[in-house]
Structures are given as structure tokens and as C-alpha cells.
Design a protein that fits this description.
By secondary structure, the protein is of the alpha+beta class. It contains 9 helices and 11 strands. A hairpin with a 4-residue loop joins β6 and β7. It is elongated.
């Protein structure tokens, strides 16, 4: 007689819930029933997990930034995040304070830079203040060994408006990588005996099943009520993206290069280096091509694979070949052709921008 009584009691408990047809009231009851069912199912597991889980020991946080050396124009490293393990993405930010009339030429780093693997490099950001300027270089890297890792010394080049350059040496950036294993985890352990689990009352499972069935029934009733609710309002349109910001920054950089008078001062190598760096920064920001950390051949292959901007190769091949000969083979073009380099770049950027 007890099973029949329990079935009739369960049926009498479920039938009133199925008669609830009001949308909002049924929805509230469904939410309460689902919460109760979840608590009934998870309470025994939570007690068991709380009794057997070992305490977690937190590791002390260590600062990753390198203190700056003495001097007004001392470069400073900032490494984020501070808690690093093997294979984590590392962001290294180099800040350099210098006079307003100088520009920092972005260095070309190899993929394997000391103990780090360089995965990306952002364009140099320049911020002018009242008495000086601050240039920021940001690198993305990874490391696959633990311990205290120091990068090599980084040679930086600052160019003023007269075309004169001076070298600044950045100190090594020290990155701390901790191991994910706890002490002793690298040794084999003996097999442990079978854990003794506490016996649970059969009524806990039955009550949880009854609560789950009641929650499902109330959820179905709430779903019927939700059909009568008005549809949600459409989302607001997203703000338009300014695609011409990269063009404006590139044009401003080319104007600054012309104002330096590098061609008149005979600094052709610096003139071509700054102009091609501006071109690479534009391609990286506007078209998503990793042009800053690629050679000329790699850049042409990447543009061909990306298929944008369309028809880039016929314009870039002679321009990049000429710039490489000036920078690495000591080619000395005539002053008129060298001075027209920035004008050629402006015309090329305007042509590409028309494809956007």
C-alpha cells in the first residue's frame, strides 16, 4: 500500500502545478522549483567535495617590471601579466622619455629573441607632453622554460628633426615564469587504497527526482506563458568604425619626415627607413597584415595571400626593393628621387584607401 500511496501523493502534487497557465506566475514558480531541484541534487556532492578537497596554497605575487637606470631618457620595461607560466602570452611594454623633436625608430627583432619567442610587435606610439615626449613600444611574446629569464640588451635609435640620430640602450627585461607542478609532483606515487564513500539515504535521490520532475513541469507551464509576452526590442545599432584613422596617422607621419629635411642633410638611409616603417604601420593597422615583423619578401607574400589591398604587388615590389638597396646595400639615389619617396607613398595610400 505504501507504493500506491506515494504514487498518488506524487500525482496529487504534480497535477495542481500543470493547471497553472498564467505566464508570469508560472515562470516564477518554475524558477523557484529549478533552484530547489538543483540544491537537492548538488547538496550531497558539495558536502563530499568540501570534506575531501585539500586547501589551496596561493603563490606570492612577484613584480615583473625592471627598475629604470639613472638618467632622464632611461627606457623602462613593464611586463604583464605578473603571474606567468610556461606558454602564457606575455606583453612587454617599453617606455622611453626623450625630447619633443625626436622620433623613435622601431627596431626589427628576430623571432627568437633570447629566451623569448616574439609573436607580435605593435607600431611605436608617441605622446607629446609639455616638456618632453614619451614613445612606447609594445611586444607580444611567449616563453617555454621556467625561472628568471632575461632578454638581451635592446639598441634603440632616436632621430631628431635635423636628421641626426643617437643610440639609446634599453636594459634587459626580466620575466619570471613559475612551474605549474607542485614540489614532488615529478616523482611517481604509490597507489592509494580505495576511498570510503559515506552511505547516502535513498530518500535523498527520490526527493531530488521528485523536485526535478516538478521543476520540469513548471518550466513547461512557464514556457507556454512566455509565448504570450511581447518580443524584445531590437538592439541598438553599433557605432560606425573610423576606417580612415590609419590613413590620417600615416599622412601625419609622412609630413613629419618631410619636415626633418633628411634628404638635404644627406641622411638617405634614415629617410627611407622612416618612410617604409610608416608604410608598414599603415598596412598592419588598416589591412591587418603583420608587416612590422616581416621582411620585404615575406610582406609581399602575405599581401598576395590576403588579397588586399588589391593590386599591391606591382606598386610595392619596386618601392621595397629600392628601399632595401638604400638601407642595406648603400645605394645612393639622386636627391630628387629620394625626396619624392613620401609623395609616392601618399599617392599609393590614397589609391588603396579608395578600395575600403
Amino acid at each position: 500500500m505504501r507504493p500506491l500511496a506515494s504514487r498518488s501523493a506524487m500525482r496529487s502534487a504534480i497535477e495542481p502545478a500543470l493547471r497553472l497557465t498564467s505566464g508570469r506566475r508560472a515562470l516564477r514558480l518554475a524558477a523557484v522549483a529549478l533552484i530547489l531541484a538543483g540544491l537537492a541534487l548538488l547538496w550531497p556532492l558539495a558536502r563530499l567535495a568540501g570534506a575531501q578537497s585539500p586547501p589551496v596554497q596561493s603563490l606570492p605575487a612577484q613584480s615583473q617590471s625592471v627598475p629604470p637606470p639613472a638618467g632622464d631618457a632611461a627606457p623602462r620595461w613593464l611586463i604583464q601579466p605578473q603571474d606567468l607560466t610556461v606558454g602564457d602570452a606575455i606583453t612587454l611594454t617599453l617606455s622611453l622619455r626623450h625630447p619633443v623633436g625626436e622620433r623613435l625608430v622601431a627596431p626589427r627583432l628576430p623571432r627568437e629573441w633570447g629566451p623569448l619567442e616574439i609573436t607580435g610587435q605593435d607600431p611605436v606610439r608617441r605622446e607629446e607632453r609639455a616638456a618632453d615626449a614619451v614613445s612606447t613600444l609594445r611586444l607580444q611574446a611567449r616563453a617555454f622554460v621556467t625561472g628568471s629569464l632575461a632578454t638581451p640588451l635592446l639598441a634603440l635609435n632616436l632621430v631628431d628633426q635635423a636628421g641626426a640620430s643617437r643610440a639609446v640602450e634599453a636594459p634587459p627585461a626580466v620575466v619570471q615564469l613559475r612551474a605549474t607542478l607542485r614540489p614532488g609532483d615529478d616523482l611517481p606515487r604509490d597507489l592509494r587504497p580505495q576511498a570510503a564513500l559515506p552511505r547516502r539515504s535513498p530518500w535523498a535521490g527520490r526527493l531530488a527526482l521528485a523536485a526535478a520532475l516538478a521543476g520540469v513541469a513548471l518550466a513547461l507551464a512557464g514556457a507556454r506563458g512566455l509565448r504570450r509576452l511581447p518580443p524584445p526590442a531590437p538592439p541598438a545599432p553599433a557605432a560606425p568604425v573610423d576606417l580612415r584613422a590609419a590613413l590620417r596617422r600615416a599622412m601625419a607621419a609622412l609630413d613629419e619626415i618631410d619636415a626633418m629635411g633628411l634628404v638635404a642633410a644627406g641622411r638617405l638611409k634614415t629617410h627611407y627607413a622612416l618612410a617604409t616603417d610608416t608604410l608598414r604601420a599603415y598596412l598592419a593597422e588598416r589591412w591587418g597584415v603583420p608587416a612590422l615583423d616581416q621582411t620585404s619578401d615575406e610582406l609581399l607574400s602575405a599581401l598576395k595571400a590576403a588579397g588586399r589591398p588589391r593590386g599591391a604587388a606591382p606598386y610595392l615590389v619596386p618601392l621595397l626593393q629600392e628601399a632595401d638597396l638604400v638601407k642595406f646595400a648603400r645605394l645612393s639615389p639622386d636627391a630628387e628621387r629620394a625626396a619624392a619617396l613620401t609623395a609616392r607613398l601618399r599617392e599609393l595610400l590614397r589609391h588603396w584607401e579608395g578600395q575600403g
